[in-house]
């Protein structure tokens, strides 16, 4: 079994929006949560488990690409 965890920390509302952007992307492949650290700081935690490293890498690559695209879209909307 291969496991991996990715974390992102920043603005709480942004964290919620970014997580919402990937939640629909086959949620059975990963677990995710947003932790509220107070003072409008949030942290996204994404955990992936897979049978092998190649599959784990593929899933994580997809998730990170989706988060990156969502972040670029948010920046475009904000500017």
Give a description of the structure.
The protein has 79 residues and is an alpha+beta fold. 48% of the residues lie in helices and 37% in strands. The chain is built from 2 helices and 3 strands. It has helices at residues 12-23, 53-78, and strands at 2-11, 30-38, 41-50. Strands 1-3-2 form a 3-stranded antiparallel beta sheet. Helix 1 packs across helix 2 (53-78). It is globular.
Task: Summarize the helices and strands and which ones pair or pack.
Blueprint: E1 2-11, H1 12-23, E2 30-38, E3 41-50, H2 53-78
Antiparallel strand pairs: 1-3, 2-3
Helix pairs in contact: 1-2
Summarize this structure briefly:
The chain is α+β, with helices and mostly antiparallel strands. The protein is about 50% helix and about 35% strand.
Structural class of the helices, strands and pairings? alpha+beta
- Helix percentage: 40-55%
Q: Roughly what is the average pLDDT, rounded to an integer?
A: 92
What's the gyration radius in Å?
13 Å
| Structure summary, number of beta strands | 3
Share of β-strand residues: 35-45%
Terminal-residue CA separation: 43 Å
Order of helices and strands: EHEEH
Biggest sheet details: 3 strands, antiparallel
Rough shape? globular
Oligomer: single chain
Instruction: Determine the number of helices (DSSP H or I, runs of at least 4 residues).
Output: 2
Strand order of the largest sheet: 1-3-2
Spans of at least 5 consecutive residues whose pLDDT stays below 50 are: none
